[in-house]
Amino acid sequence: MWDWLLLVVFIIFSVSAAIQLFYYYYFYLSLNNWKHGNGNTGSKPVSVIICARNEASNLKEFLPSILTQDYHDFEVIVVNDCSEDDTYNVLGDYLMKYPNLKVSTINRDPKFTHNKKLAQLIGIKAARNEYLLFTDADCKPESDKWLANMSSHFSDKVSYILGYGGYIRQKGLLNAYIRYDTAIIAIQYFSMALRGFPYMGVGRNLAYRRSGFFMNNGFGIHSNLASGDDDLYINNNASRDNTAVEFRAESHTRSVPASTLHEWISQKRRHLTTSPYYKASDKLLLVLEPLSRVVFYITLIALLSLWYFWIAVIAVFTARLATQIIVFTAAFKRLQEKGLLSYSLIFDIFSPFINSLLYIGKDKVRSKSQWR
């Protein structure tokens, strides 16, 4: 009986390892194999939309890098959403300096609270161009080719472009985990899009058509959620044929990361409030990988502690580890995430448990009043 039980555990271990290798080879490795086509030169007029609430210092530091992009025809629309800091004056100074800047203002109403989607909607309505590119007030493009590279994918067929929005590298374990978590999520949504299953994008670096937004009823039934202006919109409307990815190094954006654990937990929980609304097929793909990872590590420990088929177990573990190192090395290089590989081997074990705990506590996020 005991031998049969151990055999079952070994089979479960092997199946979980096979699932993991499937994700690595079929999905994640596609990032390394992807090559950017010639495409067009990004000649279409573009509207860049930024929503800002109390972001005076970030706008002062980062907005010029967007306003001075190397592109022939673009406007930048900043929606000043009920800011109570110096945002009004910062934008006023830039309005006199940059003719391509437009500002829309939402005044505070004590009888009415709203989330970021209202500011996003006002920015979209204010745009004069069909092609929209979104980022945040605390984001900085990695180069002046960001706008040109992102918009170069628009065509008669392509309406949605997924970019990479990473975080600024700083010292400390929290920063390493934030960058790791962001990179892994990007590896997932890029690779799934490349395989024909686009399921999300990030508002820090995302582009789509204005006409498509209104044709598809905007944010639709998810308008009341605190998050989802990016991932749920893509999940509802992107498809194999109408979506492109862009993750050349000069097309990345970098954001200011959370400085405290409490701040990051609040952000992460808010992002997780959207996951129950994904398509069933996407939820299955997203849950299967971390679940198989948990099963893999638990059965690995059980089998090695009992020395059952230990040579075969170590061989399977080594094969997965080697694959993981190869795939992550290539992916982190493409995403310009230096110094993460060694951390990733440890974070890989604990991240499913961390995300599970955060998911359980996601309902603590206020659904309507929290802006970001």
CA-based gyration radius: 22 Å
Q: How much β-strand is present in the residues?
A: 5-15%
> What is the CA–CA distance across the termini?
55 Å
Q: What is the number of E strands?
A: 10
Topology order in helix (H) and strand (E) letters: HHEHEHEHEEHEEHEHHEEHHHH
Q: Whole-number average pLDDT?
A: 91
* C-alpha geometry: elongated
Helix run count = 13
Poorly predicted regions: none
Question: Which structural class do the helices and strands define?
Answer: alpha/beta
Helix content: 40-55%
Largest sheet report = 7 strands, mixed
Explain briefly what this protein structure is.
This protein is of the alpha/beta class. It has helices spanning 2-28, 30-33, 56-67, 87-97, 116-126, 146-151, 173-194, 210-215, 231-237, 261-272, 280-305, 310-334, 341-360, and strands at 46-52, 74-81, 101-106, 131-136, 139-141, 160-163, 165-167, 206-209, 243-246, 253-255.
Structure description:
By secondary structure, this protein is of the alpha/beta class. It has helices at residues 2-28, 30-33, 56-67, 87-97, 116-126, 146-151, 173-194, 210-215, 231-237, 261-272, 280-305, 310-334, 341-360; strands at 46-52, 74-81, 101-106, 131-136, 139-141, 160-163, 165-167, 206-209, 243-246, 253-255. Strands 3-2-1-4-8-6-9 form a seven-stranded mixed sheet, sandwiched between helices. It has a three-stranded mixed sheet with strand order 5-10-7. Helix 3 links the parallel strand 1 (46-52) and strand 2 (74-81). Helix 1 (2-28) runs parallel beside helix 12 and helix 3 packs parallel to helix 4 (87-97).
